[in-house]
Amino acid sequence: MSLSAITKRKEVKEYRKLLKEKLGTITTKKIPVRYSSPKGISDEEIASYSEQYKIWWYFSGKEDQYWNPFGKGEPRPHKAVTGRCQINMNKEGLNRSIGGAFAKDNEGRLYLMHNGTIGGGKRGVSKNPFLDWYPAPLLDVDFDGAKAKYFIVAEFESPYFFEQISFFVHQVYDFKESKGRASQTSKINPRANKILANGEPDFRNPYSLPERTVIPSADHARITNALLAKLTIDGYNAKRTRLIDTCILNEDDEISHIFEVKSLLTTQSLYTAIGQLMIYGLKHQAKYYLVIEDTISAKLKTDVSSLGIEVITFKWQDKQPVFDMINGLD
After folding, report:
1. Which end of the chain is more exposed for a tag (fewer CB within 10 A), N or C?
2. What is this structure's pTM?
3. What is the pLDDT of residues 234-248, one digit of tens each?
């Protein structure tokens, strides 16, 4: 994915207005608050609150940047609040000390970005520990020739745009409240190997599986559920577990085929997929399959196949994945 930052003052202002308008559609309350920080308590501002997503926010401005604090839970009217999550933006160009930004990919899709810059005044609460915590890959973003690392917070066209922002806000809070300690959710669930007949939820907390990141519309759940449906229609006993995206059970109810779905091909996701398939295979005499979009090169497919992993590709048609080869699995 190629990402170019929005750096022109007029465009940054335009997309910030779009962000404000989009969030306005989920506002259920307007609440007067006073922002509390180590520098003191601000004058009263009017925050918006979403009952559905349990977050509040307001938009303000400083001389050098747009200031956009977000918070978790419903604030009390006229009381001081501490917004532990800020998606602030430079008004023009690149400023690495300011966390937020807008960017577009090579197909013109617009994203809300963040570089992980957070504060808190506590030991362990800073940018690098947070980047280790947050389950999103850092991507190169082009700022008019200068490169900077950012991750995607939310995709404007995604049906899960608000879930994506809410997830980010809650993760910042969880990180700060833990003082940077590893989350319990990163531990393997003892029920992880239980066979599940149902599909994957359209949106779920991806923290425990870092490769399942909030990314473009080619989302993991849609691909996984389509794969389960396709295999079932073709007569296979297709299931999944909390760790294995999709698997086929043989007549003895043993796993004979394991499918690892990746909704975005990056070096990290490829290495993760290979590692996952190898680890899952330790307990099962199974065939391995990597399911990825058809942008993968022929050479990379050959390299992956040399490891004993077959590649199944798909392309998007009418917002649904269509697989190139499913029938006739050995």
Report:
1. C
2. 0.62
3. 889 999 887 788 999
